[in-house]
From TrEMBL:
Keyword Nucleotide-binding: no
Annotated source species: Portibacter lacus
Residue numbers bearing the N6-(pyridoxal phosphate)lysine modification: 190
Keyword annotations from UniProtKB, A to Z: Aminotransferase, Pyridoxal phosphate, Transferase
Pfam families: DegT_DnrJ_EryC1 (PF01041)
UniProt protein name: Aminotransferase
Length: 366
């Protein structure tokens, strides 16, 4: 009989404890600076993250969703245009497309990688298609070579959603540096998380960068002179300063996530794991036909899990006007019904993973 443990789905202890003094100093410096919106901390972090991601330009924004909306606007995507996106993507991706008035064209994912199924894209491209949103789910990048080839063939733009893949790479190129433009979320639970809401847009195109800077700041590049209708979506100094501290440790934390994922792989066997060894392991997902019962079993023994995501976007009330019904995107629906995300974060011990895996294997043997 195993003694119950308490293992939360996510804990910041293994991240923040070791750098607490650095974070406090950074926060104190911002308070003392008396400058709290788009000052030197923001400019510094933009420079650091641009360099880290291999992007020429980085534009801090208020959130990943705002970053996606502004990215679409930078590409002049609007009503009448179509944007291809994974049918199982997080709702923010669909919301961004809807916010600019464009048409959402859902593409089923691979049930192995959870990312958009490359083989199902071309048949959905029409004369109205303007962009592909490459959502790098759970820390693993999409097949960017195939996406680039399709984009070139049909003259499409690629927008990367890098919210869950900070630090991942594809053929030695960092995520968020391959498409025409990219948005990254720094929601606290991300691999690189702020202590509040924050995001960033990256691009290698100077014109897109300048447009993004205007759009995030009321449509203005000169104070009180508004060239376009913009947003109030600036990255604040406090979050930028804290993110600068944490960015230095991102590769270390990602390495720890990979190690934990490998422990899971070894103990559960690859048939359980929808994971690739090159990703940054933001989420470790397994699939079970008895998912709900398994989740209850784990919770009953002190292990917290989450479901990413329990309702696919096409079945959400917010998109009932699109007239999709159950069965329209069976792979997304099956993943929503069978996927279960296990704890994965710096600070988990190998003993913790043994405990979790023993519980899963015990359940599976019944």
């Amino acid at each position: 009989m195993m003694k119950n443990r308490k293992i939360p789905y996510l804990s910041f202890d293994g991240i923040h404890d070791e750098i607490e003094e650095e974070l406090i100093r950074a926060a104190s410096d911002v308070i003392k600076s008396k400058w709290y919106i788009h000052g030197k901390s923001c400019l510094q972090f933009e420079k650091e993250y641009g360099s880290y991601s291999g992007s020429d330009y980085a534009v801090g924004v208020n959130s990943g969703l705002d970053g996606l909306i502004i990215s679409l606007q930078c590409l002049n995507i609007r009503k009448g245009d179509e944007v291809l996106v994974a049918s199982n993507a997080y709702i923010a991706c669909w919301n961004a497309i809807a916010r600019v008035g464009a048409t959402i064209v859902p593409i089923e994912p691979s049930s192995r990688t959870y990312n958009i199924d490359i083989n199902k894209i071309e048949e959905r491209i029409t004369s109205k298609t303007k962009a592909i949103m490459a959502v790098h789910l759970y820390g693993q990048m999409c097949d960017m070579d195939a996406l680039i080839n399709l984009a070139k063939k049909y003259q499409l733009s690629i927008i990367e959603d890098n919210a869950q893949s900070q630090g991942a790479s594809y053929n030695h190129q960092k995520s968020s540096s391959i498409g025409q433009i990219s948005s990254t979320s720094f929601y606290p639970g991300k691999n690189l998380g702020a202590l509040g809401d924050a995001g960033i847009i990256t691009t290698n195109n100077s014109e897109l960068a300048e447009k993004a800077k205007k759009l995030r700041n009321y449509g203005s590049s000169v104070k009180y002179v508004n060239e376009v209708i913009g947003h109030n979506s600036r990255l604040d100094e406090m979050q930028a300063a804290l993110l600068s501290v944490k960015l230095k440790y991102l590769d270390q934390w990602n390495a720890q996530r990979r190690e934990i994922a490998q422990w899971y792989n070894e103990r559960l066997g690859h048939e359980w794991a929808a994971i690739h060894p090159s990703n940054v392991c933001h989420v470790y997902c397994i699939q079970s036909e008895a998912r709900n019962e398994l989740q209850k079993h784990l919770n009953g023994h002190g292990v917290q899990t989450l479901i990413h995501y329990p309702i696919p976007p096409h079945l959400q009330q917010a998109y009932e006007h699109l007239n999709y019904k159950k069965g329209d995107f069976p792979i997304a629906e099956r993943l929503a019904e069978q996927s279960l995300s296990l704890p994965i974060y710096p600070g988990l011990s190998e003993s913790d993973i043994d405990y979790i895996c023993d519980l899963i294997l015990e359940f599976n043997s019944k």
